[in-house]
Amino acid sequence: MKKFCLILSVLITLLFTVYVIISVPFPFVQDWWHAEDYDPHDRFSKRHRMADWLVMTSALVGLRRDEVLAKLGPPPPTDKFTDYDLVYHLGYERGLISIDSEWLVVSLSQSGVVTEAKVIRD
Questions:
Q1: Chain mean position to CA 78
Q2: Please, how many CA atoms are within 13 Å of residue 69, restricted to the half-sphere of its CB?
Q3: Whole-angstrom Cα distance, residue 93 to residue 90?
Q4: pLDDT in tens, 46-88
């Protein structure tokens, strides 16, 4: 019984560690966001996790369009999610089976101020 409990404890600790490595949001670091070696296929993408942090903390809400562009850079051209004003590709969706992509989408008011930012999948 002690052996079973030890194995179970190690397994739970391992699963929790993997969860933290894959899922915990990173604070936004501009150099990481703009890294030249950004790989959209990387399951441990810093960009995904920084986008989660930007959304979770509402860090973009209230910024003007030019401030968002200074922070995140211009979004690459895409025909996806035309209901949003700024659309940033983060990479493949996180999870065991990745068949979709994740995107950071930003809505602006008529005066050009961010009203909403969220991470969505296509």
A1: 18
A2: 11
A3: 8
A4: 888 999 999 999 999 999 999 999 999 999 999 999 999 999 9
| Helix (DSSP H) and strand (DSSP E) numbers for the chain | 4, 3
Determine phi and psi for 102, rounding to 5 degrees. -110, 145
- Enter the pTM of the model: 0.80
Angstrom distance (rounded) from CA 10 to CA 73: 43
Q: Which candidate, 95, 83, 86, places its Cα nearest to that of 113?
A: 86
pLDDT at 45 over 80: no
CA distances from 95 to 23, 100, 105 (A): 10, 10, 20
